[in-house]
Specification:
By secondary structure, this protein is mainly α. The protein is 96% helix and 0% strand. It starts with a helix and ends with a helix.
């Protein structure tokens, strides 16, 4: 009889242990399932945050590129304007030099004509005036070409 009671107690204890294990397995499965769901939600939230950050980063890059292009364009326009102004100033300075040189040569030529008289003197003065007019016209043409180039450079 003791043997039967002992067997019944052993079977009851084993039964409780198995039921407890089943409940533990059931609770563990539930906990694992909840942990997976929570992890999936956290991953999805992290992905949404990352997508927002990527999107904002792309927008920042686009804005920075547009700003760079704008500034670069402004810098190019400023450089072109400065170069145009420099070309204009150089053209006018070169014209002034050419004009002064032509006037100097004309003055020297007319002084040399003082050695002649009558028709010879008139012919000499005509040559000096013609040479001066040619040099002056060339200086004007060179200046105007440089000024036109400066305007097109803008």
């Amino acid at each position: 009889m003791n043997y039967q009671i002992l067997s019944i107690v052993a079977i009851a204890g084993l039964s409780l242990a198995i039921t407890g294990c089943n409940q533990g397995t059931s609770n563990t499965a539930k906990d694992v399932s909840e942990a997976r769901a929570e992890a999936n939600e956290e991953v999805n939230e992290a992905r949404r945050d990352a997508t927002d950050k990527f999107s904002n980063s792309r927008e920042d890059v686009v804005t920075a590129r547009e700003d760079y292009v704008s500034r670069t364009q402004d810098a190019r326009e400023n450089l072109a304007e400065v170069e145009s102004e420099a070309t204009t100033a150089n053209a006018r300075a070169a014209f002034d030099i050419a004009q002064t040189e032509a006037e100097g040569r004309h003055n020297i030529a007319t002084e040399k004509c003082g050695a002649y008289t009558n028709v010879d003197k008139a012919a000499c003065l005509s040559r000096a005036d013609a040479a001066f007019a040619t040099e002056k016209a060339q200086a004007i043409a060179d200046r105007d070409a440089a000024l036109a180039q400066a305007r097109h450079h803008e």
